[in-house]
Write a structure and sequence with these properties.
CATH topology of the domain at 37-143 and 210-301 in chain A: Aldehyde Oxidoreductase, domain 3
CATH superfamily of the domain at 37-143 and 210-301 in chain A: Aldehyde oxidase/xanthine dehydrogenase, a/b hammerhead
Strand content of chain B: 5-15%
CATH class of the largest domain in chain B: Mainly Alpha
Strand content of chain A: 25-35%
Order of helices and strands of chain B: EEHEEEHHHH
Distance between the termini of chain B: 37 Å
CATH architecture of the largest domain in chain B: Orthogonal Bundle
Radius of gyration of chain A: 27 Å
Strand order of the largest sheet of chain B: 2-1-5-3-4
Bound molecules: FE2/S2 (inorganic) cluster
Oligomer: heterodimer
Low-confidence stretches of chain A: 1-6
Number of strands of chain B: 5
Number of helices of chain A: 20
Number of domains of chain B: 2
CATH class of the domain at 37-143 and 210-301 in chain A: Alpha Beta
Helix content of chain A: 25-40%
Largest sheet of chain B: 5 strands, mixed
Low-confidence stretches of chain B: 168-191
Mean pLDDT of chain A: 96
Number of helices of chain B: 5
Strand order of the largest sheet of chain A: 4-8-2-18-15-16-17
Number of strands of chain A: 33
Largest sheet of chain A: 7 strands, mixed
Largest interface: A-B, 60 and 62 residues
Helix content of chain B: 25-40%
């Protein structure tokens, strides 16, 4: 279902559903992912990881491993270039150089379990895995710090002795608090004094993992000329290049990164993990070295989304207007600073227009894996807290949850919680579409015969989407097709969505544009595939290039026809002369004549966009709870989302559905279950329970298209918005079903049973009148 | 080293493998087919699914040596030189893949189901595919694609039956018509 608002414009290619260009390779098993690469002379590596979450390394002996037959190289932190404790920019904001190097391989201190301490390269995988076990490491275990509360407690063990915290601009030493910031607007005290209803609640969340099915992988070849080649499954080849250059102290031009096909990332494949280790091993043995991470290590040592504690307080006046909101969010950065709390603050109040607000955000270091971006980083946490409180207020005031959200909706010009004013946004359109959806209009049948309880919930969500830098090269072929070279990793169909935008401009079929994702020497700089920017920004670059190609082809036609280029028209894929209607050539016919009119045509488009056009979703969910076991079943789920313009609607729907299902997993099952020693007790796909086919119904999608004036076709980012609302929507549905408010994720059976027991105890003490 | 004689995607193959090597690594490293993927190495993701002697297995949980005397089908063996398998075609048309890392496993599992139960309903499909994890799609489009492939196959066999009815036509039975003996995978614990 597509509801178009503006502008009403018909397209030939955009909005259609062609088969994606890389599809045949991917359904036949031919596509080459990182782990599939086999270079001549390639050898295997293996990594030794810390069994402790918090410890000092007191001694290391690699001699046995070095002597093991088949071993070609052994590396430890001693082989890493010396890093200083200073701030450097490695492409994802500034980081402390020493922290970044220690995250790759620990030099003196362990700050999370699974942190690498040494690595081996050997003739085959088995030999490398056997040899790495022969490395002797002695540790002095320290008390692990596992929650934000423990980390901020007086006398807490200090995880990073060199950390200088920033407490509202003041420097703090001997702390686990990396940052505390505040956004403040209006007068919250006054706002709360005007409120009739105030709800304040504290929420707790566990870390969750991106859960991509493909483990991290890397192949490195560091040659005698000090040139380093990397092949890896990454969300950004240029980001890998920058990180490698920074960590290994090389000029960027010495590093060439080839992005292989990537098996999922969701933000987690932006940081490098194995690449520097493979590089160091290769430098020692001058062979291509391949590393593939074990699943356990993926869980224990790569980017989860932060857990933490969030407190939200919202006041509403008698008329149903929100008067004030105050929140504080303490998120777990993991072993090194850098949680998503800043982005959480940008999202938390975004569906609403609230005159008086404060947000306090804390970035807290704990002995868990360093958190990494995970699909709309910070937004699911922030919206879980906020949307649960909004639901409770609607119940208190007796307001319909959609009417309430419409009445308080953010619009163009509304100030976001961090101060930014919204441009054109589609929250109102989304809410209206939700209210018209078949799901919302249907009545949930709550009569069950088996004692199960049913409920319906709704929640809003927002993601700001980013723009940044992209470049695309187009070359015309003389058969009328066009080669497109881009630098954005295709993680879910973006070759198609980018090529389609060029095809639309050129007036040729989508499949006549042949896209290739190039390495870092085959295309100009591109930022990562992340922040929902790819179809938007790289598509914009493709549009620009296509416009230039049309101009160049007009000049060629002018030359053939002996006309002035300004007298050449281009419409619906046909070039014609203004002054002589007999003179017409379509794109294909003109392409054949490029050789005679000045040679090959190749053009480049490049963009640097400051925003991506924020977008909203509203999710409706029906749940059924087995009150005997606490198991929750999702009966029905509808996603309503503003996508700006759906270039390839099938992949837009796919993003929406995939994001929601990750959110369902986050809500119901997924968590880092930590022992008190700081070990993740469920570090396998068996125990870290992601949704399967059996756990889900069909997921309904309603695409809303509110033109984004910042993009020629009106595109907004799509991929991240859908993970923002599900946790809250499901929590609200559970409240509708059971009458209990769940304030800690995941809503696993045991937790639901506890909440029901507490409810019945409370009812026994205070009998209802 | 163990001497293995087997058939892979209809072709005879003979090689030596270390006794400890999994069937997955045997196929990927020794045979050189990289369609079957590594996702977990402990039988919980299904990215490595292949058909061994008519039965779907997580090839990371089987030894390469166990393939001796057997018959293996991987994703590379689903299409013929002339046509994609209906499942492959349906996955493309229905956009049933995003990153595509899970796709070989889903295709192989679903192919085994369709051979055994050509008209499996949605619930049955969801049950059968529960041992294959996909983190990108939310499964909706995968399930729709399998249903579409069922329709495509039944139309295909109808038109083949018409051809077969003519006296000159040869039998249209597939050369890889091994039957599927077991309904689910073992050891995944995802029921
Ligand atoms: S790799 Fe075999 S089931 Fe995951
Ligand atoms: S398409 Fe990425 S895991 Fe299924």
């Amino acid at each position: 279902m597509v509801a178009t608002f503006e502008p009403k414009k018909t397209y030939k290619v955009i909005g259609t559903r062609p088969i994606r260009h890389d599809g045949y390779d991917k359904v036949t098993g031919r596509a080459l992912y990182g782990a599939d690469l086999k270079l001549p002379g390639q050898v295997w590596g293996a990594v030794l990881r810390s069994p402790y979450a918090h410890a000092n390394i007191t001694r290391m002996d690699t001699s046995e491993a070095e002597k093991y037959p088949g071993v070609l190289a052994v590396v430890t932190a001693k082989d890493m270039p010396k890093a200083e404790s200073k701030m450097v920019d490695l492409g994802e904001g500034t980081v402390n150089e020493k922290h970044e190097v220690d995250r790759i391989m620990a030099s003196d201190k362990i700050v999370f379990r699974g942190q690498p301490v040494a690595a081996v390269a050997a003739v085959d995988r088995n030999t490398a895995e056997e040899a790495v076990k022969l490395i002797r490491v002695e540790y002095q275990p320290l008390q692990p710090v596992l929650t934000v509360e423990e980390a901020m407690a007086k006398g807490a063990p200090i995880i990073l002795p060199d950390l200088v915290g920033d407490d509202l601009g003041e420097k703090v030493k001997k702390t686990n608090m990396a940052k505390h910031f505040r956004h403040e607007f209006g007068d919250v005290e006054k706002g709360f004094s005007q409120a009739k209803h105030i709800v304040e609640r504290t929420f707790k969340m566990s870390m969750t993992h991106q859960g991509y099915i493909e483990p991290h992988n890397a192949v490195a070849m560091w040659d005698e000329d000090n040139r380093l080649r990397i092949w890896t499954g990454t969300q950004g080849a240029f980001a890998v290049r920058k990180q490698m250059a920074g960590i290994l102290k090389l000029d960027e031009s010495r590093v060439k990164v080839t992005p292989m096909e990537i098996g999922g990332g969701f933000g987690g494949k932006i940081p490098v993990y194995l690449e520097p280790i493979a590089a160091l091993l290769s430098k020692k043995c001058r062979r291509p070295v391949k590393l593939v991470m074990e699943r356990k290590a993926v869980f224990e040592s790569t980017g989860p989304a932060p857990g933490g504690t969030l407190r939200v307080k919202v006041g509403v006046d008698a008329s149903g207007k929100i008067t004030a909101a105050a929140s504080d969010m303490k998120l777990e950065a993991g072993g090194f600073p850098g949680s998503a709390v800043g982005a959480a603050a940008m999202c938390i109040y975004s569906p609403y227009n609230i005159p008086n607000t404060t947000i306090d955000g804390w970035d807290i270091v704990v002995n868990k894996p360093k958190s990494a971006p995970y699909r709309a980083p910070g937004a699911p946490q922030a919206h879980f807290a906020m949307e649960s409180v909004i639901d409770e207020l609607c119940e208190k005031g007796g307001w319909d949850p959609i009417d309430f959200r419409l009445k308080n909706s953010a619009k163009e010009g509304t100030r976001r919680g961090d101060g930014v004013k919204f441009g054109s946004i589609g929250n109102v359109d989304v809410l209206k579409a939700a209210s018209r959806s078949p799901h919302w209009k249907s009545v949930l049948n709550k009569d069950t015969t088996d004692g199960k309880k049913r409920g319906r919930g709704i929640a809003s969500g927002y993601w700001f989407n980013i723009g940044l830098k992209s470049a695309v090269t187009l070359s015309a072929n003389n058969d009328g097709t066009v080669s497109l070279v881009e630098g954005s990793t295709d993680i879910g169909g973006s070759r198609a969505s980018i090529a389609m935008q060029a095809a639309e401009v050129l007036g040729i079929p989508a499949l006549d544009v042949r896209p290739t994702v190039a390495d870092t020497e085959g295309v100009a700089y591109n930022d990562v595939t992340g922040g929902s920017r790819t179809t938007y920004a790289t598509g914009f670059a493709a549009y620009e290039a296509a416009i230039k190609m049309v101009e160049e082809l007009k000049a060629r036609a002018a030359r053939i026809w002996n006309q002035d280029p300004s007298d050449i028209l281009f419409k619906d894929g046909v070039f014609s002369a203004k002054k002589d209607s007999e003179l017409r050539l379509n794109f294909k016919e003109l392409s054949k004549k490029l050789g005679e009119t000045g040679g090959p045509v190749t053009v480049t488009g490049s963009v640097d966009l400051s925003t991506g056009g924020g977008a909203y979703g509203a999710h409706i969910v029906d749940v059924e709870v087995d009150t005997e076991t606490g198991k929750v079943e999702i009966l029905r789920y509808t996603i309503v989302q503003d996508v700006g313009k759906a270039i390839h609607p099938s992949y837009v729907e796919g993003q929406m559905q995939g994001g929601v299902v990750q959110g369902i997993g986050w809500a119901l099952n997924e968590e880092y279950f930590m022992t008190k020693e700081g070990t993740m007790a469920n570090s396998s796909f068996l125990d870290y329970r992601m949704p399967t086919t059996l756990d889900l119904p069909k997921i309904e999608t309603v695409i809303v298209e509110v033109f984004n004036p910042g993009h020629p076709f009106g595109v907004r980012g799509v991929g991240e918005v859908p993970i923002a609302p599900p946790i809250a929507a499901i929590g609200n549905a559970l409240h509708d079903a059971l009458g209990v408010r769940l304030v800690e994720t995941p809503f696993k059976p045991g937790r639901i049973m506890e909440a029901l027991e507490a409810q019945s105890k409370a009812a026994a003490v205070k009998p209802k009148r | 080293m163990v001497h293995v004689k087997t058939t892979i995607n209809g072709q005879p193959a003979e090689f030596l493998v270390p006794a400890y090597l999994s069937l997955l690594d045997t196929i990927r490293e020794v045979v050189g087919l990289t369609g079957a993927k590594e996702g977990c190495l402990d039988g919980n993701c299904g990215a490595c699914t292949v058909i061994l002697n008519g039965r779907i297995v997580d090839s990371c949980l089987v030894l390469g040596a166990e393939a001796n005397g057997g018959e293996i089908t991987t994703v590379e063996g689903l299409a013929t030189p002339d046509a994609l398998h209906p499942l492959q075609q349906a996955f493309l048309e229905e956009a049933a893949l995003q990153c595509g890392i899970c796709t070989p496993g889903f295709l192989v599992s679903a192919a085994a189901l369709l051979k055994r139960e050509p008209k499996a309903n949605e619930q049955r499909i969801r049950h059968w595919l529960a041992g294959n994890l996909c983190r990108c799609t939310g499964y909706d489009k995968i399930v729709r694609a399998v249903i579409k492939a069922e329709d495509m196959s039944s139309q295909l066999s109808k038109s083949k039956a018409k051809v077969a009815a003519k006296p000159t036509a040869k039998s249209s039975a597939s050369p890889k018509a091994s039957s599927v003996r077991s309904s689910g995978r073992s050891g995944s614990g995802r029921k």
